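Why should sequence recovery work at all? Because a backbone constrains its sequence more than one might expect. Tight turns favour small or flexible residues, buried strands favour hydrophobic ones, and helices have their own preferences. The token representation captures these environments compactly. In the example below, the structure is given first.
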């Protein structure tokens, strides 16, 4: 392992905060016509309040023994349809799950959203690479590391130290070719969650399952990437 890779092996965790994610994503090159927004609840009335169209959903959840077992079970599902143009990044940098989720959210929405700048360059550079090759590109991307560091320091709560044991994790839900995919950089590949009719509502059904596994946990946060309503 090079000194550069060692230096990047741990990043600051990102706060689940739309303002932080928007500043980060727009700095990387996301069009201002699109923005991350809080999803305040998973009931139909609250989902209806989220600006449309929704192109991806981020979930921050507490890692527990229950949902770890569920994650591994889901990752072993048979007869999954994984399209070659679904971009998946493996997470090899500790605490980088926020950036991995952000990249999954943006890179797999390019048929709808507009990106430019460093983000466009990064996606172009990695779109035909393997997940492992993409991970190496991220490890060596100084500009991305600096942007993540700034985002990690921008939250409303105290930023944990990179060496702190953080038990919260970001994953992304995105759609491709009429199917819903769960993208988690700790897995070896995306998880095919079946046909999608409404991205937000279908993602909410899976998120509810995570909540049901650990009903006493409260540190769940859901954020959607949608068309900006100013």
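From this structural description, the recovered sequence reads:
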């Amino acid at each position: 392992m090079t000194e550069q890779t060692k230096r990047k092996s741990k990043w600051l965790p990102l706060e689940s905060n739309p303002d932080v994610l928007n500043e980060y994503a727009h700095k990387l090159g996301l069009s201002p016509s699109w923005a991350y927004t809080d999803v305040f609840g998973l009931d139909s009335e609250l989902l209806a309040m989220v600006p449309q169209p929704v192109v991806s959903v981020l979930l921050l959840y507490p890692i527990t023994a229950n949902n770890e077992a569920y994650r591994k079970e889901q990752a072993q599902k048979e007869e999954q349809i994984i399209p070659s143009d679904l971009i998946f990044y493996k997470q090899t940098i500790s605490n980088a799950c926020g950036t991995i989720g952000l990249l999954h959210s943006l890179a797999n929405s390019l048929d709808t959203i507009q990106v430019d700048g460093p983000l466009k360059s990064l996606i172009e550079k990695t779109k035909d690479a393997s997940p492992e090759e993409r991970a190496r590109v991220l490890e060596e991307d100084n500009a991305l590391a600096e942007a993540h560091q700034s985002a990690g320091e921008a939250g409303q709560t105290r930023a944990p130290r990179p060496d702190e044991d953080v038990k919260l994790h970001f994953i992304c839900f995105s759609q491709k070719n009429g199917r819903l995919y769960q993208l988690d950089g700790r897995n070896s590949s995306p998880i095919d969650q079946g046909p999608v009719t409404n991205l937000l509502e279908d993602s909410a059904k899976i998120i509810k399952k995570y909540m049901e596994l650990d009903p006493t946990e409260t540190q769940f946060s859901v954020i959607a990437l949608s068309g900006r309503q100013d």
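A few observations help interpret the result. Residues 180 and 193 are 5 Å apart (CA to CA).
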